[in-house]
Amino acid sequence: RRHATARAALAESSRLALADIRNRVGNVVLARQERVAATREALDRGRYVEVRGEAGVGKSGVLRQMAEAMQAESQVIVLSPGRCVPRGWTALRAQLGFDGTLRELLVELANDGGATIFVDNLDSFSTEERLTVVDVVGEAAVVPGVAVVATARREFGIDEPSWLPSDALARLGQSDPITIGELSVAEIEQLKTTDPSLVPLLTDRHPARQVARNLFRLARLVNQPASDPVPRTEVD
User: Fold this and answer.
1) Spatial contact of 82 and 43, defined as CB atoms under 8 Å apart
2) Which of 33, 107, 166, 211 lies 20 to 30 angstroms, CA to CA, from 181?
3) Tell me: the pLDDT tens digits for 15-28?
4) What's 135's DSSP letter?
5) H helices of 26-118, where?
6) Global pTM?
7) Are 81 and 120 in contact (CB under 8 A)?
8) Would you list the DSSP string of 210-231?
9) Please, which residues bridge with residue 119 across strands?
10) What DSSP state is assigned to residue 181?
11) What pLDDT is attached to residue 90?
12) What is the DSSP track for 96-114?
């Protein structure tokens, strides 16, 4: 009971971080059930899963959909660049007003049906924000019932070593990454059916097909003012 205020603050910060993630294309909130299901299955094989893909393919949207669904059954913590308290756990503890250790907090959350830590966009955390993520992931590794789901671009950890603690990831157990590419056939049909205005942009013969099949760029095209020239090439 004495931790109720701190837990409420943590839940609110997580909710606001999820709200930052745009998940609408025109009038449609795309249900990415295949991607979410694949990520959940990966968590059965290990407590650490990365969702990878190029910029704009909707990795963060999958994270948001999964986190919002899991809120009904377990505890979630969302850490994202710009909203993550910098300088490590001690700074986060002060902001939450929590009077225990990080391990105590994670054990308490895990005892309420498990807990999942969502880390969005590993490529974009500042050096000081990384300290907080490292602290949280490191302690999560030693608390049964806590899992970690992160998003990153394809090349994260390849050109230079990942900044996440390798010993913690090994203890968590890493599943193979879930890779997201362009929109699937089922997702395209859902978009077309729900919002017919998207049909011209999603035809197989559209001259900018590779651009329009990228979720972020598709949303930009849909929101383009009607007075603007219609893009007719991939360059446009």
Assistant:
1) no
2) 166
3) 999 999 988 887 88
4) H
5) 33-43, 59-70, 89-96, 102-110
6) 0.90
7) yes
8) HHHTSHHHHHHHHTS-TTSPPP
9) 79, 150
10) -
11) 97
12) HT--S-HHHHHHHHHTTT-
